[in-house]
Automatic annotation (TrEMBL):
Organism: Methylobacterium gregans
Record keywords, A-Z: Flavoprotein, Oxidoreductase
SUPFAM superfamilies linked: FAD/NAD(P)-binding domain (SSF51905)
A Pfam family of this chain: Pyr_redox_2
FAD/NAD(P)-binding domain span: 3-282
One Gene Ontology term of the molecular function aspect: oxidoreductase activity
Record has DNA-binding as a keyword: no
Protein name: Thioredoxin reductase
Encoding gene per record: trxB_2
Domain of life of the source: Bacteria
Amino acid sequence: MRDVIIVGGGPAGLNAALILGRCRRNVLLCDAGRPRNAATPLTWGIFTRDGTPPAELRARAEADLDRYDTVERREIEVTGALRTEDGFAVDLADGTREHARRLIIATGLHQDLPAIEGVSDFWGTGVHSCPYCDGYEARDQPLVALGHGPTAKGFALELTVWSRDVTLCTDARPTDLAAQDRDRLARNGVRVDERPVRALRGADGHPTHLEFADGGTRPCRAVFLMPAGCRPSDLLAGLGCDLTDKGVVPTSDYEKTNVPGLYVAGDASRRVQFAVVAAAEGAMAAFAVNTELLREDTR
């Protein structure tokens, strides 16, 4: 019986393992090797590591873990998990089963991309989900907010931090823009284009323009996708974990879930989806787990 099993080897899982290793906890970290940011060339917004390739960040973090002999890392998929009387049982892709007193899920989310030609080709290099992460590199150039619905206006206005050349493209989907919404967008230099989008075109790995179904085009250096429902790990539903309508876990203090002993840290939890925030959530979950285990062991 291990103290903790961590599922997911991104910033949240790696930092949780680091803190728990320093607490001398017996930890198994399992990662399937399919990071959400695999297509992203560089990771921004992490102090002392701004602009570091994601793979390099992971390699550095894994090297840090090597000094803690109570932490084991395995590159393997977790295929199932269930609650037991004394903790959790976790099934691995090789047919083995591991047991732990506590479980941290740090698998992140799967990003669903719009079914528009070219969008997947530029994912990570010109199509992004977070302007805080990638807006600076496209500053003062034509930006597109691709989205619809009542929050589209706010998302488009957010992009004006990085450029005054912003277009809200709704792809002919309902957006419910009232007259005052359109006036506010116009006052701030945001155009609204409600035509259906045919394709995103570009060259040398970067977008250059959107192509619409009517044959028209619009210059575009980067497309930012509105936050939308993402697919969390199937493990969460199987464990009986609550989910919001956007597919994230409504964790409480220190990343606790409604399932006793289960913690969710990183992009699958409720906070903003920054790498540095995910790492912090992993640390908070590790702190809470160690505190719980300490209480059990000293009562």
